[in-house]
Specification:
2 copies of one chain form a homodimer. Chain A is α/β, with parallel strands linked by helices. Chain A has 3 domains: 43 residues, 434 Repressor (Amino-terminal Domain) (Orthogonal Bundle), CATH 1.10.260; 134 residues, Response regulator (Rossmann fold); 142 residues, Rossmann fold. In chain A, 44% of the residues lie in helices and 16% in strands. A 6-stranded parallel sheet of chain A has the order 2-1-3-4-5-11, sandwiched between helices. Chain A has a 4-stranded parallel sheet with strand order 7-6-8-9. A two-stranded antiparallel sheet of chain A has the order 10-12. Chain A is elongated and about 85 Å long. At the A-B interface, helix 4, helix 5, strand 2 and helix 6 of A face helix 4, helix 5, strand 2 and helix 6 of B. Chain A binds a DNA duplex through helix 2 and helix 4.
Chain lengths: 336, 336
DNA sequence: CTGAAAGCGCTAACAC
DNA sequence: GTGTTAGCGCTTTCAG
């Protein structure tokens, strides 16, 4: 930086000021300094800067699984509001690995980011590792903080499950199945609770839980075989805990006599996975609004960064919404 | 850190050593120090550390579009080899925005990462911004550096296009169409070249280019309408420049008389998009091996970080591979 | 605006 | 192993 100062024929402090307090520097000298910066290819050392100021203008987000478009949406939302506040967002991927998640958190902590957003692996696996961060502001995304120690934003999973089941019931379906598991995934358990609540509110409607070992397409295909074995007419409505599950089941069932989708069996998925609308039969789904969750989470983090540790740690709940498509509406649905 | 030293009853230098040169410290004192660290919740300040050493153990990757699973694969591959070398990988998303891309590069440059990987927006839009980085080692992914100033890893797009067309020709198809555009996307242009080369090598086979305005599903649907208008039998094989394009076209064409896929029209896509195997008709595709590209790119970067600026800037070419599925093989194909 | 200087938290080198 | 110290590149303050 002193090179720049010499090259521009100004004082070192003036160089610093043109970068940080441009209004304290006259138009003319500012341009001289910037010319020198460009000429020398000077790049300010952010490590030294944040050492000196004790602050940083970047925030980090730790994502459970980048392969899941839901998390990418969260990151995109967080990035948008971070930029609005003049901050940068950097991402670390835990890749469904608890050890990597811890490393990523430490990484951000040690590099003294202004704050961190954490979209952790599913709750059941995390509970217990209560103390996540002490000094750095931390906001949880898609995870309900137990202790109230952290601010956060979560989706109302139960509401989503309720909406899904209620949609099918509204279409006249009475013999429902809920596809999903394992139940130690709290999101799945809550979605099931919501579906049960909808059924309980509608006399004459039944719901059976078909537990799966996971939420991916192969699990859906496996469950599809089970449903097939139960015989046509056993169910006339299917709530799947994920879009992938729904697609897998549809791949097996649709076309088989007595299992036409949606005539014999109306299907609703969950997540609004990006390809759900492009699969063999576009899947009705529950959208969790990942991008909005990211925006809100980043906003909570900004509050905390500015407000200090006294800021109240609120948890914002985002309501998911139904997006009906062909798998439940049939020909009544049309693309766009 | 001096707090830790006092708390453990050792010298400041010893604390530094237990973290950086554990072998220079006796077992006993090392444990004392670590206990103090845990007790005080001490977190080493990486900004100060990298200021003092002039080095960093994290590398950054700037990705053109996180929504595209190809880039996520690249990041995953890079992360794997970075960890093998004891380094951390942080990600910044350009979100198909040139301005964000520049900001992200500067961000990493200023934070003095050990090196950066850049998977940039398509070449045509980037050419000209020749000087990307001076001081920080930089390796390009999925982009052919013109000047030889940067190391890089790219896919052999022409080979991919050749393979796709050759696959159809091998199946006895003779009236091919190539779907894709705009041609100022160099990847598309090169894939088309490859397809043309395959056709030229096989007398009696023809290929017509149907230009699209983009590579997404709606563009594919639009092109599908065009093909439909041309009448049944005009084409018997279709090479699409992306899986999304292929899916869109199939959505329109399959089922229409004379357009059964693959009987009347065999289709090959490109990218091995994660959902390509789960669409209405699983799409044959060309896989670019994103994860391997990421691994190789990170390895090149490691070489450069260790070897200094004298390291030769090589460009590694990864050959894409055909993954045949139902859209070209028909019933001969079985899942897995 | 200049010029000088203290200090951010750490590493690395020194004599003991 | 200890205790001390210079210095990484920047910000910030102060008198002029």
């Amino acid at each position: 930086m002193s090179d720049v100062a010499r090259h521009a024929g100004v004082a070192l402090g003036t160089v610093s000021n043109t970068m940080n307090n441009p209004d304290k520097v006259s138009e003319a000298t500012r341009r001289k300094v910037q010319a020198a910066i460009a000429e020398l290819g000077f790049i300010r050392n952010d490590a030294a800067r944040s050492l000196a100021t004790g602050t940083s203008s970047t925030i980090g987000i730790v994502l459970a699984d980048l392969s899941n478009s839901f998390f990418v949406d969260i990151a995109r939302g967080a990035d948008a509001t971070a930029r609005q506040h003049g901050m940068n967002l950097i991402i670390a991927n835990s890749d469904v690995d608890l050890a990597k998640q811890s490393m990523n958190i430490s990484l951000f902590e040690e590099s003294r980011v202004a704050g961190v957003l954490l979209a952790p692996l599913d709750t059941a696996y995390v509970r217990g590792s209560a103390t996540l961060l002490r000094s750095t502001p931390l906001v949880l995304v898609n995870f309900a903080a137990e202790s109230g120690h952290y601010a956060g934003v979560v989706a109302d999973e139960e509401h989503g499950g309720y909406e899904a089941a209620q949609h099918l019931i509204g279409l006249g379906r009475t013999r429902l199945a809920f596809l999903g598991g394992p139940l130690l995934l709290t999101a799945v358990a809550q979605r099931l609770e919501g579906a049960r609540a909808a059924v309980a509110a509608n006399p004459g409607v039944t719901l059976e839980h078909i537990e799966t070992r996971g939420l991916n397409i192969p699990h859906g295909r496996h469950a599809g075989q089970d449903i097939l074995a139960r015989g046509a007419g056993t169910f006339d409505g299917l709530v799947a805990a994920s879009d992938l599950l729904a697609v897998g089941a549809i791949q097996i069932l649709d076309g088989k006599p007595g299992f036409d989708v949606p005539t014999d069996l109306a299907v609703v998925g969950y997540d609004n996975n990006h390809f759900a609308s492009e699969s063999a039969i576009p899947v009705s789904t529950i959208s969790q609004h990942g991008e909005e969750m990211g925006r809100v989470a980043a906003q909570l983090l900004m509050n905390e960064i500015q407000g200090g540790p006294t800021t109240i740690k609120q948890t914002v709940v985002i309501k998911p919404d139904l997006i009906p498509r062909r798998s439940s509406l049939g020909d009544a649905w049309r693309r766009d």
